[in-house]
Design brief:
Layout (H helix, E strand, L loop, with lengths): L12 E5 L2 E8 L4 E7 L4 E5 L4 E15 L2 E6 L3 E4 L5 E16 L7
Antiparallel strand pairs: 1-2, 2-3, 3-8, 4-8, 5-6, 5-7, 5-8
């Protein structure tokens, strides 16, 4: 397999939290692409990280929580969090999302 191609079908799945599963796809020093499978009623606690994060909801519905309030995203929507911006989520429906991090997250390699 070429180093610049990776299928989510061949990526190792990691359980992040109960009902939250991550597959790290491709990355370099500056960018990282991850695929998440999220089960209804799962929760991602409020957290922050130095990496910027932008995502896209392939399917499902999530409620994001931030220090400035909350917002709901569903299939077809995108979202963004700046470096060190606190955020968490409650999964409202079984969901599938793609997240991109800048720079790449060391803890997800």
């Amino acid at each position: 397999m070429m180093k610049n191609i990776k299928s989510k079908d061949n990526a190792k799945q990691i359980k992040v939290f109960e009902g939250v599963y991550r597959k790290t796809l491709l990355y370099n020093r500056n960018l990282m692409l991850c695929h998440f499978t999220l089960e209804k009623n799962a929760e991602i606690p409020l957290h922050s990280h130095k990496e910027h994060q932008i995502g896209y909801v392939i399917d499902g519905k999530l409620k994001f929580l931030t220090e400035n309030g909350e917002f709901i995203v569903k299939k077809g929507a995108s979202y963004i969090f700046d470096s060190n911006e606190k955020h968490g989520a409650i999964i409202l429906e079984d969901s599938e999302v793609i997240d991109v991090f800048h720079p790449a997250r060391e803890d997800y390699k």
